[in-house]
Amino acid sequence: IIAIAILVRADTGNAGQQALDLIPEISESDFVRGNVDAPITIIEYADFKCPACSAYHPILQKLVDESSGQIKWAYRDFPIFSQESAGASRCVGKIAGNESFWIYTDTLFREQSSITSDFLKNKAAEVGVDSESYNSCLNDPVLVRSIDKEYNRLKYLVGLTSTPTTVIIDGKGRKFMFTGALYEKTLIDIIETLDKK
After folding, report:
1. Residues 52, 163 contacting (CB under 8 angstroms)
2. How far apart are CA 14 and CA 101, in angstroms?
3. What DSSP character marks residue 80?
4. Can you list the alpha helix ranges (DSSP code H) found in the chain?
5. Which of 26, 98, 132, 196 would disulfide-bridge 171, Cβ 3.0–4.6 Å?
6. What pTM, to 2 d.p., does this model score?
7. Per-residue pLDDT tens over the stretch 164-190
8. Cis ω before 164 (30° cut-off from 0)
9. pLDDT digits (tens, 9 = 90+) for 44-79
C-alpha cells in the first residue's frame, strides 16, 4: 500500500514548478489540523475510499500531533473514487466547523470499508449535523460543481493523477510535491532539511 514517493523539486524552473505554483496556500476555506501559525505546511490531496490514503492518514496525524506546533496540515479532496464522501466531508466542515471536520475525516478513514451513503449521513449526525442541513448541503449544485471544477483543475493543470499526493511548504514558501504515501521516517527526514523561517 505504501508507495515510493516521487519528489517534484520546487526550484527547477520547469513544468513541475509551474504546477506547484497552481497549488494555493492555506486559506480560511481550508480545514486545518495543528498550529495554524506553524512554519511547515502539509497539504494532502486524498480520497476517502483510497486504501493508500487510509494507511497514510494516521502517519500524518502522528507527525502533526508530535511536531510541537511546527507543522500544520490541510486536507483537500481529490475524489478519484468517491465524490459523495468528498461532498459529505465538506458539508460537515461547513455546517459543524473545523474540529467536527477532522473527527469526521478520522472516522471515514478508520472505517473506510463501511462507507456508504447511509454511513456518511449517520456519521455526520454523530458530529452534530442534522439530516435536513446535510441533505441540503450535499445536493447543492454549487457544491457539486465546485468539487468537479477543482478536480479538473488539479488533474489537467496541476497534473495530479493519484492519491495521496502531498505538498509540503517550508518557512520560505517553497513547495515540494510528492506522489504516493510516504513513510513516517521519510517525512521526518524531509521536514528536518527544510527552512523553518
Report:
1. yes
2. 36
3. S
4. 15-21, 51-65, 83-96, 98-110, 117-126, 131-138, 141-153, 184-193
5. 196
6. 0.89
7. 999 999 999 999 999 999 999 999 999
8. yes
9. 999 999 999 999 999 999 999 999 999 999 999 999
